[in-house]
Write a structure and sequence with these properties.
The protein is an alpha/beta fold. The protein has 15 helices and five strands. It folds into two domains: 162 residues, Rossmann fold; 121 residues. Zinc ion binds next to helix 3.
């Protein structure tokens, strides 16, 4: 193992590696970016590089220190997340970590706390942390990990050095899944595309189950005939039964309509997420539906947001499917 084997995020990794080598690490970082792209992994990689017994300014992943950090039981490295059954990171947890950061380190090297997701700190916890950031304990390092930094106090954000993370490239992710997880090439390509650049999501998706689901969804959308509002109502009712399932459907439908649009414009398949079902795609896509696809992409996003806000699922989905049959 080592920094060179981190998936993606070369610029961010290099920034940290150089700062570490020059002894110029900031005392607090904010790692911001999409879910599941490797922010916490890089935070822990940095912790390993600081404590590794085998390598200097890099990590081996094998020594006792690296292993303890990986398992979450190194005395100088803590990960703070909400306690079991709780939704927030509490002020008590922040006070506890402040105390630990002020103790002398067990190893003589830096004491590190990774807060993930930092946005789950409630207001009083954030205020408590602010005090720690104003007077950082000697040889301490804080890493705040967040997908959306909007929930963090501006004063807190401004005291951290921000590293922004993007999505992983689809090809990068597919290569990783094929080489490290031993997936077949087609399956790796499909999962990487469906996960839209998130390794975390790709690892959670069951490839076979997803393929089957997609077949059902494609059939379902393409069977809706122009003006058949009755069928749209019945379909919406079926999809609305399960909240997670309807959100998954909407996420996929957004990708599907994007694919239809790309296919209509380029007539190529290399950019398509669903390129392995090209025959279906050719059946569905047509130049004259370009605008229709474009507006449906926006509507799937809007529908998903509505369901997230707990609007009536059946009505939200019905509204979307009415637009599908209305413009055929
Ligand atoms: Zn090591």
């Amino acid at each position: 193992m080592g920094f060179s084997e981190i998936l993606g995020h070369q610029r961010q990794t290099e920034t940290l590696r150089l700062a570490l080598a020059k002894g110029r690490l900031h005392h607090a970082y904010l790692f911001a970016g999409p879910e599941g792209v490797g922010k916490r992994t890089l935070a822990l990689a940095l912790a390993k590089a600081i404590h590794c017994a085998e390598r200097v300014d890099d990590f081996c992943g094998q020594c006792a220190n690296c292993a303890r950090i990986e398992d979450g039981n190194h005395p100088d490295v803590r990960t703070i997340e909400p306690l079991a059954g709780k939704k927030e990171i509490s002020i008590q947890q922040i006070r506890e970590i402040e105390k630990q950061l002020n103790f002398r380190s067990f190893s003589g090297r830096k004491k590190i706390a990774v807060l993930d997701p930092a946005t789950l700190m409630n207001l009083s916890a954030q205020n408590a942390l602010l005090k720690t950031l104003e007077e950082p304990p000697q040889d301490s390092l804080l890493v705040l990990v967040a997908t959306n930094t909007g929930g963090l106090l501006p004063t807190l954000r401004s005291r951290c050095l921000r590293l922004s993370f993007g999505s992983l490239q689809c090809a990068q992710l597919a290569n990783y899944l094929a080489s490290k997880k031993g997936l077949k090439r087609e399956e790796a390509d499909f999962l990487a595309a469906m996960a839209m650049g998130s390794l975390g999501t790709a690892l959670k998706i069951d490839g076979e189950e997803m393929q089957e689901k997609r077949r059902v969804w494609i059939e379902l959308l393409s069977s809706l005939k122009a003006g058949d509002y009755r069928a749209a109502t019945v379909t919406a009712e079926g999809l609305a039964k399960d909240r997670d399932e309807s959100l998954r459907f909407l996420e996929w439908a957004g990708i599907w309509y994007r694919d239809l649009m790309v296919h209509a414009v380029t007539r190529g398949s290399s950019e398509l997420v669903n390129r392995d079902v090209l025959a279906w795609m050719e059946h569905e896509s047509a130049d004259d539906r370009l605008e229709h696809s474009l507006s449906l992409i926006a509507q799937t996003i809007e529908a998903a947001a509505g369901i997230q806000r707990n609007l009536n699922r059946r009505m939200v989905l019905e509204n979307l499917l009415f637009n599908v049959v209305g413009n055929r």
